[in-house]
Amino acid sequence: MKILIISPSVMGSKGGVATVVNALINGDAKTRGYKMKHLVTHKEGSVIKRVFFFLHSVCSLIIQRNVDLAHIHVCCDGSFYRKSLLAFINRIKGIPVIMHVHGCDFDRFYNNSPKFAQKIIKGTFKKSKKVLVLSSSWNDFFRDYILENNSGNLEILQNGVTVDLIESSLVSKVALQNFLFLGRLCQRKGVYDLLESINILVNQQNRKNLVFYLAGDGEIFEVEKIIEKYHLQKNVIILGWIDEVQRKQHFNNCCTVLLPSYSEGLPMALLEAMAHGKVIISTNVGGIPELVNEGENGFLIEPGGISTLAERIVHVHDHPHEMEQISINNRKKIHKDYNLETLNERLYAIYSASALN
């Protein structure tokens, strides 16, 4: 079976969608009887370059032959409108379409869209053979607002990690003082709330032994100004965007991964962290509450809960034996529920059912 994967470029891309697509393209599909072809729809660059690249993608899709199924990875805003056009072209050609939704704030996108745009959104998903979402909460939203009572084509497929390739690192007492933030440095990811919490810990509670590593691109200059304002240069280290090898190094150096986001889908950063046995401190948004059980896998706070975030950081540092158990729990949970090999078997079954029906 020939599958056309439609997504942004995975070469040099920074984010969860690229990670998911790259794992799918380079996985074991061929040995299972599936031939993957990748149609790239978006690359970073000037507006003119992005427009011409997308038009080239449209032309490539129109002349594409011998495709049994199109698997389209979609987010919100501009990504949705680009992918809705490509979904329409596939349907005109008689090719079944799977829409795989990654957008962390698709609800915001839909609710803020005018009525005619909401009709386009609903129509695009209702005419798809299958709509894949990342969590139960997103399943509920799409069932109630997008597909309404016509949700037979809706299914949950979580993100996963290649467990066998990850060398889990055990929590040690040395690492308890080290915390790792993984994500774009911006307000949505909660990095400014984290800095306020660090200010409380270091300057008000005199917890000067705590060290926070910020791994990600984004608003680096703004973050540096806040670090300077609160005199946190010895406690906060900006790493910039780090690759897979560097992530493993920092996982080995840190006990806890922080992601105090305001909106999420199902973050690959947390899945990878848990597979390495890291304790999680995050927020109860998107699919995170289904991944992180309070006290069992880490700790969840309300978005914007600066003082609570500081309290959870202190708790992690001061309870080493509890963190050792959480580390064990997290490795077991990822192996059981978020193993990419098992999830891909489900995806291949979805491919077969969608192409044949």
Mean pLDDT: 91
Low-confidence stretches: none
Count of beta strands: 12
Task: Sketch the major β-sheet.
Answer: 6 strands, parallel
Question: Tally the helices: what do you get?
Answer: 14
Helix content: 40-55%
Rg over C-alpha atoms, rounded to the nearest angstrom: 21 Å
Q: What share of the residues does DSSP label as strand, in percent?
A: 15-25%
Distance between the termini: 14 Å
| CATH C-level label of the largest domain | Alpha Beta
**Overall form:** globular
Report on this structure.
The chain has 357 residues and is an alpha/beta fold. It folds into two domains: 2-160 and 339-356, 3-Layer(aba) Sandwich (Rossmann fold), CATH 3.40.50.2000; 164-337, Glycogen Phosphorylase B (Rossmann fold). The protein is built from 14 helices and twelve strands. The chain has helices spanning 16-25, 47-63, 78-92, 106-111, 115-126, 136-146, 191-204, 220-229, 244-253, 268-275, 288-291, 306-318, 320-337, 340-356; strands at residues 2-7, 35-40, 69-74, 97-101, 130-133, 154-156, 178-182, 211-215, 236-240, 256-259, 279-283, 298-301. The strands form two sheets. The chain has a six-stranded parallel β-sheet, with helices on both faces. It has a six-stranded parallel β-sheet with strand order 9-8-7-10-11-12, sandwiched between helices. The chain is globular.
Can you give keywords for this protein?
357 residues, alpha/beta, Rossmann fold, 2 domains, six-stranded parallel sheet, globular
